[in-house]
Amino acid sequence: xxxxxxxxxxxxxxxxxxxxxxxxxxxxxxxxxxxxxxxxxxxxxxxxxxxxxxxxxxxxxxxxxxxxxxxxxxxxxxxxxxxxxxxxxxxxxxxxxxxxxxxxxxxxxxxxxxxxxxxxxxxxxxxxxxxxxxxxxxxxxxxxxxxxxxxxxxxxxxxxxxxxxxxxxxxxxxxxxxxxxxxxxxxxxxxxxxxxxxxxxxxxxxxxxxxxxxxxxxxxxxxxxxxxxxxxxxxxxxxxxxxxxxxxxxxxxxxxxxxxxxxxxxxxxxxxxxxxxxxxxxxxxxxxxxxxxxxxxxxxxxxxxxxxxxxxxxxxxxxxxxxxxxxxxxxxxxxxxxxxxxxxxxxxxxxx
Length: 352
Known about the structure:
elongated; Phosphatase 2c, domain 1
C-alpha cells in the first residue's frame, strides 16, 4: 500500500517509493559505468517505480534526478557533436513526465477515496446511537471497532427498542462497504424502529424488514441480522443468516445456533424462531462477523469459543474491553472488517 494512502506521507528516509526509485536509478547508472551500453533513456524508469509507492511530489524528485543524470552521463560519455545522447535523455524525460502524471492521478483518486470513507464513517457513527446502560430488566454495553485504515467502512448496525412483548434488539451487517452500505444500514434501522413496537410476532418483524430493504438492494446484496426479544425468563431469537449469539453463564458457554438454516434479509428471510431460557445474571453476546472471522498472522480465525467464558467476569464494559483486547492481540492489531458488539445481561429486577 502506498505510504500516503492514509493521508500522511512516510518520512523521507523511510519512504519506500524514494528508496526503490533511487535504488533502481543507482543500478542503471552503475550498469552504464560498468558496461559499454548507454542506458540513459531508461534512467527515469526509476520514477515509474517510485510512482507506484509514493506521491507525485516525491516522484517528481526522482524523475528530476534521473533526467539530470541522463543528460550528464550522456554528455560525458558521448561526443558533444552527436545528438543520440540528447535524444536518449529526452526520451527519458518523457517517461519521467508520464510517471509524475500517473502518480498525480492516483493521488487524486486515493484522496477522493479517503474523503468518501470519512463521510461514510461519520454517517455510520451518527446512525449507531448509544445503547441505554439499562432497560426493561436488562443491562447493556456495546462496542464498535473500526477496521484498519486500508479497509472501507462497513454497514454494521445495532439498535434496541422497548416493546409490549419485551425488549427487542437487532444486530446486523450489510454486505458491502462504503456509503452505499451505510445507506442500507440506515434503512434497516429505520424499519426496525418503526416495526419492532407494532408487531407482536418477532418473525413478522424480520419479514417486514426483508420486504422493506429488498427494494433497495440488488439481486446479490443482502443484510445478515439477528433479532432478539428478551422476556422475563425467555429469550427469543430470529436469526437471518447472521453469526450465532453466545449465551454465557457462570457455569456454561452456549452458542445459540438457529434450529434451521436461514437466509439474510433481502433474500426472502422468513426465520424460524428459537426460544431459549434466559437465566438471571446470564449474559448474551450479539456480534457481527468482524469478530468471528477475524484472522491472525497464521490465517487462523479468532477463537471466540476459547475466550467467551471471560464475558461472564467483571462489568459489561470490562468484559467487552477484554474481548476487544484479545481480538487485537490475535489479529496483531490489523482488523480487516468493522465489527459491532452488544453484550446484554439479565438483571434481577426491571429497570428503565
